[in-house]
């Protein structure tokens, strides 16, 4: 709450100011309005159905006076997850209790014949900040964001404007692969068409204007930069696929000697304090003067953090739009032939990879409600005779790295229940193949799997996966990556004293 201003004034200021935060203002801004008596019941300021779902857990429910019943000035920590199909936020306290959470679908803004993801993510960022309950914002001590891995944005460091469209996480630049393979060690993580380095090399070879002020950012870095304003800062999870080596805490010499190395961001540990939130954004939304923005991570690592699996052998499978696997291992494994790489997690390694199979294929075929109804009719103890490789389109990253792999979703049986059972079981088989591959490559053998992402809501799928994997499989206590990002913000709790980060 901005001291001295009532809800109405703050909400009015926000509506009036919101477009200025999103310059250039997209043309689709509707004549939406706020119900000023209670801004949280507002219709969307955009002419789309209000996608805002804000949930206040019971222990924060107001007690008649409209203010959530939390100790005055208790610090809260805000995490935001920018996944494949939408974005979420989680607001937690130092014990990890949830004080508010919400989600937004990405507004699909068309720019010529493609989606303007830059505008969509920017609008969604400020919508999520706007969805944080007004009376809690003054308690937010720090903010972190996770994004899809290897989603790459190259901007002009002078103007802040993108120098090309973003390269999405699962986009592949095979034409750059020979050049990358010629400089990197054999089977290095960057030796994959969908690596950030392949995207950088592809841009570098095709961009024919002035590149002198170019800066490479990952999706989470760029969103955080909008909030703190210090250009060119990343974290060692997001920077892995451009070639950063978290073991030596630096870029390797074979990369630093490249002509484009100057565009690479500086790298800090995830959850490191970067700077205070920008003053104009702070005052528009009512965050406190000492609100710190800290480095983020990737969405599947945030999901791992949310599951709070701390022992080697524990793993998290993120069943989101994609199937991302993270196994906590004492040994570091890397083999681009299979799309296997290791992210650093403090003094251990998160070994795994990300398949293009997963929920996005299901969403092409069924609504979430249909998934629920059809899944109820599946007997998870029975094996499906159907053998599919569910992909949205050609190309697989892990556990088979084959940019030409074709989807296999036929023959389709008469019964949708049987069809769904076959798809869920086939994705479980891919998951089992992935964990077996990690063991063969020398990672700590998996002994228990926690599930994150939208697919974690499907109890029958969890039972199918337990049977196929031959392991205990559970739904994680916290299934949203946004909770993991909030834990990073909590971790940072760092302070910046006299300009120095403590
Ligand atoms: N009951 C369900 N069973 C299986 N998959 C589901 C179910 N409900 C949602 N999903 C899948 O979850 C995915 C969305 O999960 P989410 O974690 O939000 O994805 P992302 O963050 O990758 O966008 C969708 O692709 C959807 O198909
Ligand atoms: O599939 C994805 C989008 O959801 C990303 O690739 C996912 O984040 C996996 O990448 P990483 O293992 O680097 O976190």
The major pleated sheet works out as: 8 strands, mixed
Low-confidence stretches: 1-51, 60-72, 494-499
Small molecules bound: adenosine-5'-diphosphate, ribulose-5-phosphate
Principal-axis shape equals globular
Number of strands: 22
Strand residue content: 15-25%
* N-end to C-end Cα span: 28 Å
Overall average pLDDT: 87
Judged by helices, strands and strand pairing, the structural class is alpha/beta
Number of helices: 14
Task: Detail the topology: elements first, then pairings.
Layout: H1 7-21, E1 53-55, E2 76-82, E3 86-92, E4 98-105, E5 110-111, E6 114-115, H2 117-131, H3 134-137, E7 140-147, E8 152-156, H4 177-183, H5 196-206, E9 214-218, H6 219-228, E10 233-235, H7 253-256, E11 266-268, E12 273-276, H8 279-285, E13 292-294, E14 297-298, H9 299-307, E15 314-319, E16 323-329, E17 341-345, E18 348-355, H10 359-365, H11 368-376, H12 416-440, E19 448-452, H13 459-469, E20 473-475, H14 481-492, E21 496-497, E22 500-501
Parallel strand pairs: 2-7, 7-13, 7-14, 10-11, 15-19, 19-20
Antiparallel strand pairs: 1-4, 2-3, 3-4, 5-6, 8-9, 12-13, 15-16, 16-18, 17-18, 21-22
This protein binds adenosine-5'-diphosphate and ribulose-5-phosphate.
Residues 83-86, 320-321, 359-360, 362-363, 368, 371-372, 375, 453-455, 457-458, 461 line the site of adenosine-5'-diphosphate.
